[in-house]
Amino acid sequence: MNGIALVTGASRGIGAAIARALARDGFDIWLNYRSSDSEAEKVKKDIETSGRECALLKFDVADYEAAKSVLAPLVSAGKVPYAVINNAGFRKDNLLVWLSTEEWKSVINVNLDGFFNVTKQVLPFMLNKRRGRIINIASTAAHSGMAGLVNYSAAKAGLVGATRALALETAKRNILVNVISPGFIETDILDGLPMAEIIKTIPLGKTGKPEDVAELASFLCSDKAAYITGQAIQINGGLC
Ligand code: NAP
User: Please, what is the average pLDDT of the chain?
Assistant: First the structure.
């Protein structure tokens, strides 16, 4: 498979694992990140060592104009990604009674607006190509909710709704849109959580690895997943 995959938030964690897996599958990678320059360079080096191209696209997905200024010149020049993985995200937890407007807005801006800001730039060009895959990375929190994560759960549930609607809009142009909802995956985002207690609640009795999520993204970007669209697939060790 040859083509370009745009992966947001791919300097670390799940995004970096998805970028490496898709490069292994034959994609050249557009690697977005916000601030971790040395980590992004390392992922780029790994991808180039594996024989694929990797362009670093540094911008904040919460900033519409920044996304446009980086992506519009690329797609206008005829470079159109086959796959877009909207993965960039972060948490800022608080109980709603104490949640500040900034904590609410910043989490919605990155996790939900980021999907809009990035997808808007490339979708018209993907529609013209009449093929493509969009994967939005949500969370188990979108489906079951989690105390202290009202902002994050709302943003991720919004992504699930947006995915179902967009899948209907793009199906006739052969663009398949799905959600991956991870549970507890071993990345920096888990810092500060009481993992010993949390693991007791996971039916499989362990956290997942970024590579577990990356293999699902790899499958959803492959020809093997050609009849799957509008779905939210949870990968969480059996959490309900
Ligand atoms: P992570 O290790 O903290 O990595 C987050 C990545 O997103 C980094 O590459 C970071 O780039 C980038 N990023 C954050 N804000 C950004 C922004 N505004 N613009 C561009 N890039 C941005 O997190 P992760 O665990 O891999 O999470 C990846 C996705 O999975 C997120 O959407 C998260 O909500 C979701 N998820 C994770 C888990 C889990 O247990 N790990 C569970 C459910 C859902 P910089 O370092 O350059 O800032």
Answer: 97
What does the pLDDT read at residue 2?
A: 67
Tokens standing for 179? Answer: 């959600």
Is 152 annotated in the active site? yes
- Note the pTM of the prediction, 2 decimals: 0.98
Residue 137's DSSP bridge partners are 180
Catalytic-labelled residue, pool 33, 64, 152, 227: 152
If residue 2 lies in a helix (H) or strand (E), which one and from where to where? none
Cα-to-centroid distance, 141 and ligand 1 (Å): 15
Ligand 1 neighbour 35 (Cβ under 6 A)? yes
- Report residue 230 CA to chain centroid gap: 15
The reported pLDDT for the residue numbered 1 is 52
**Cα–chain center distance at 119:** 11
The tens digit of pLDDT for each residue in 171-188 reads 999 999 999 999 999 999
Q: Which residue from 11, 14, 117, 193 has its CB within 8 A of the most atoms of ligand 1, so it is best to mutate? A: 14
**Domains in the chain, start-ordered, CATH in brackets?**
4-234 (3.40.50.720)
| Ligand 1 close to Cβ of residue 208 (< 6 A) | no
Residue 33 has pLDDT above 70, yes or no: yes
